[in-house]
Amino acid sequence: MTGSTTLTDVSKNKFGRKIKFVTDKFKREVIFRDVEHAYAQSKLGFNKSAVILAGSVVEELLRLYLSSKNIIPKKNSFECYIDTCEENGLLKSVIHKLSDSIRYFRNLVHLEKETEEKHSISKSAAMWAVASIFMIVNDF
Predict the structure, then answer these.
(1) Of 29, 37, 68, which Cα lies nearest the Cα of 54?
(2) Which of 8, 38, 62, 98 could be cross-linked to 53 through a Cys-Cys bond (beta carbons 3.0 to 4.6 Å apart)?
(3) What's the domain count of the chain?
(4) Which domain CATH number covers 44?
(5) Sign of the Cα pseudo-torsion (5, 140, 58, 128, in order)
């Protein structure tokens, strides 16, 4: 995330300000690294990798966001983080649906679900998943 990217047009500084609730320096570095890697993977056509990384970043950001608000979800799962954010009015409805869609796409990467080409992750889905990180972060 050096400077801006053409996919997201979001600077590292702006992204960093939006996730100020991530106070652990190492955790912030990991998030920045994984966002950058997800972007690079999507540009190179490694679609599954990009979706997995994007999903894991969103999941961790939601977990940390809830923690910063001292809100404890019923379970530690991506789905519960999304539901807890919605139940507490922390995300707009459209962002809730976007988060849920990322979870759905991330779950498609399981080999058992990839039974034919139409079930494979497309380049556009991978780029969408990466761009979704920034859309969700803008709602924090």
Answers:
(1) 37
(2) 38
(3) 1
(4) 1.20.120.330
(5) negative
Q: Secondary structure of 25-57 in the HEC alphabet?
A: HHHHHHHHHHHHHHHHHHHHCCHHHHHHHHHHH
Looking up tokens 């490694």 gives 46
Range of the domain at 128: 12-137
**The token pair that represents 2 in the structure block:** 């050096």
CA distance 37 to 6: 15
Kindly report the backbone phi and psi dihedral angles of residue 121, in degrees, each rounded to the nearest multiple of 5, phi listed first.
-80, 125
Output DSSP code: residue 112: G
- Encode pLDDT of 48-69 as tens digits: 899 889 999 999 999 999 999 9
User: Per the structure block, which two tokens stand in for 61?
Assistant: 């950001």
How far is Cα 11 from Cα 99, in angstroms, rounded to an integer?
Answer: 22
Q: Which amino acid is at 96?
A: H
Q: Are 25 and 38 in contact (CB under 8 A)?
A: no
**Which single residue is written with the structure tokens 């789905």?**
79
CA atoms of 112 and 7, how far apart (whole Å): 30
Q: What is the pLDDT of residues 1-11, one digit of tens each?
A: 444 444 445 67
